């Protein structure tokens, strides 16, 4: 009962993708999204057919595929085991089947691994569509598409890169930093050209993360300030009341007409003392704020090429540290020498500068403003 | 999010304002809305024939800077064996094939100022000035 995916279907997906790319270049993102959606549909259809074929290669006699929550349920024959598969669970996108089969020794559980669900081509369709959504600022769509793309191709640099950017915009900053770091690792291995952009996105995500924690801190501090001011004012009221209550009512009424100089002095003194406390408190908080304000980033944390804070420091045989991405770009575009010492050097001579990386990470934790320095 | 090039140029500008090299009188973008065209004003080194003079340079920064050198030209006429008298073009290795991304606009300007007092007769752009230099050197 299984059918071959028609070559037309595979071809049609590519045609839709090419058209989508053309619309993308023309910045007609809505049209591009339609094409990529069609490409995904064709490709998934083709995959579904070849998938059932592979199971069919094991002479699956009968497959009932019914979506059951996230799983597909199927019953099949595995002839070489001469066993009746009773239960086959197929997570919609994963690498393995789990099936239960009956043998003479009773029920057995078995895992079958297939490559069927890893498909970089379909991952590209998803990341292309995600990029359109990113341009249209529909970040939820970006997240959904990238997550699918990453399942089809866990090594997709673009999948992680775009997902990280969308998370940054949605202020899910922890996830953003995590995704972008994965994107960076994969990008270094895949030797992609837009490594610098990934670093930039990572810095951006880190900055957002810092701003977020700053806002929370600000709020905490202003709440605390409000509370402390409230305490001082309550104390002021209490003391004022005490002075007023200490006098007999007649005198209190009388004092409205004849100013009782000692009482007025006492009230003034209480007010003055509390005003001073309030202004001292405000000063303390203002100073704490100043301490958080921008300062300088030590020169030794900066890349000698981009002048940015280094994310992935590598050290050359001359002992000079650079950002890996920018140094490699220099090797590619200018030549194989250390930019500062001019001694011969290539990417094979580089070592990661782990101590500096730790020092920078520690510095950024305490001085988040510096990530965008 | 500003791009890497803009960020680097802004930092170069801050660096110059904080710690300007002597004899480099000015180094700044020519117009506010274009960070890729800068001007610089060089002062002639003391005890050289150029002392007391001021030369304006125009710096055009390519999009792939600092992976490619800036294009620097003299706007003020100058008589020097390595500088084209009419076009102001400069023949200096670090502005050509010996460029390194660790160089900055400021260090390039300093290199040009040093070129004024240390001409390189082997790569002339101004043949007359070059001939004069060689002739004078021979006399010495």
From TrEMBL, chain A:
EC number(s) reported in the record: 2.3.2.27
Keyword annotations from UniProtKB, A to Z: Repeat, TPR repeat, Transferase, Ubl conjugation pathway
GO CC terms of this entry: cytoplasm
GO molecular function: protein-folding chaperone binding; ubiquitin protein ligase activity
TPR repeats: 13-46
Top enzyme category: transferase
GO biological process: cellular response to misfolded protein; positive regulation of proteolysis; proteasome-mediated ubiquitin-dependent protein catabolic process; protein polyubiquitination; protein quality control for misfolded or incompletely synthesized proteins
Residues covered by the U-box domain: 296-370
Pfam family, one: TPR_8
This protein's record includes keyword Transferase: yes
Domain of life: Eukaryota
Keyword hit for Repeat: yes
Catalytic activity from the UniProt record: S-ubiquitinyl-[E2 ubiquitin-conjugating enzyme]-L-cysteine + [acceptor protein]-L-lysine = [E2 ubiquitin-conjugating enzyme]-L-cysteine + N(6)-ubiquitinyl-[acceptor protein]-L-lysine
Protein's name according to its UniProt entry: E3 ubiquitin-protein ligase CHIP
Organism (species): Paraglomus brasilianum
From TrEMBL, chain B:
Domain of life of the organism encoding this protein: Eukaryota
Domain annotation UBC core: ranges: 4-140
Keyword Chloroplast appears in the UniProt entry: no
Entries under SMART domains matching the protein: UBCc
Key words of the record: Ubl conjugation pathway
Protein name: 5288_t:CDS:1
Organism the protein comes from: Paraglomus brasilianum
């Amino acid at each position: 009962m299984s059918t071959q995916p028609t070559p037309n279907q595979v071809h049609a997906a590519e045609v839709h993708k090419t058209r989508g790319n053309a619309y993308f270049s023309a910045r007609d993102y809505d049209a591009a999204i339609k094409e990529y959606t069609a490409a995904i549909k064709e490709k998934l259809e083709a995959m579904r057919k070849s998938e059932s074929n592979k199971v069919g290669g094991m002479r699956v006699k009968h497959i009932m595929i019914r979506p059951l929550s996230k799983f597909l349920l199927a019953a099949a024959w595995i002839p070489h085991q001469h066993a009746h598969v009773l239960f086959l669970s197929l997570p919609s996108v994963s690498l393995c089947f789990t099936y239960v089969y009956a043998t003479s020794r009773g029920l057995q559980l078995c895992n079958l691994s297939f490559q069927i669900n890893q498909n970089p081509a379909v991952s590209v369709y998803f990341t292309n569509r995600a990029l359109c959504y990113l341009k249209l600022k529909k970040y939820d769509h970006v997240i959904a598409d990238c997550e699918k793309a990453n399942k089809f191709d866990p090594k997709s640099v673009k999948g992680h890169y775009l997902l990280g950017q969308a998370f940054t915009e949605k202020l899910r900053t922890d996830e953003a930093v995590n995704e972008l770091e994965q994107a960076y690792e994969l990008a270094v291995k895949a030797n992609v050209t837009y490594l610098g952009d990934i670093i930039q996105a990572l810095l951006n995500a880190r900055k957002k993360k810092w701003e977020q924690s700053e806002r929370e801190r600000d709020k905490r501090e202003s709440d605390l300030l409000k509370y402390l001011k409230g305490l001082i004012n309550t104390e002021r009221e209490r003391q004022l009341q005490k002075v007023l209550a200490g006098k007999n009512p007649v005198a209190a009424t009388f004092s409205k007409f004849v100013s009782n100089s000692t009482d007025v002095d006492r009230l003034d003194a209480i007010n003055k003392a509390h005003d001073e406390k309030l202004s001292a408190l405000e000063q303390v908080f203002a100073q704490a704020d100043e301490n958080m304000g921008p300062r300088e980033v030590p020169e030794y944390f900066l890349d000698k090429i981009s002048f940015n804070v280094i994310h992935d420091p590598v050290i050359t045989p001359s002992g000079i540290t650079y950002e890996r991405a920018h140094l490699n770009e220099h090797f590619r575009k200018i030549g194989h020498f250390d930019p500062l010492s001019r001694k011969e050097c290539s990417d094979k001579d580089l070592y990661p500068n782990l101590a500096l990386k730790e020092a920078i990470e520690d510095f950024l934790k305490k001085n988040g403003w510096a990530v965008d320095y | 999010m500003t791009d890497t090039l803009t960020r680097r140029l802004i930092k170069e500008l801050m660096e110059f304002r904080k710690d300007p090299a002597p004899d480099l009188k000015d180094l700044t973008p020519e117009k506010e809305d274009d960070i890729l065209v800068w001007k610089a004003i060089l002062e002639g080194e003391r005890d050289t024939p150029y002392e007391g003079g001021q030369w304006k340079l125009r710096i055009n920064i390519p999009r792939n800077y600092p992976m490619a050198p800036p294009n620097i030209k003299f706007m003020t006429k100058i008589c020097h064996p390595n500088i084209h008298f009419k076009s102001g073009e400069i023949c200096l290795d670090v502005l050509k094939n010996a460029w390194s991304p660790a160089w900055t606009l400021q260090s390039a300007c300093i290199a040009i100022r040093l070129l004024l007092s240390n001409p390189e007769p082997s790569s002339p752009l101004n043949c007359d000035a070059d001939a004069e230099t060689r002739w004078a050197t021979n006399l010495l």
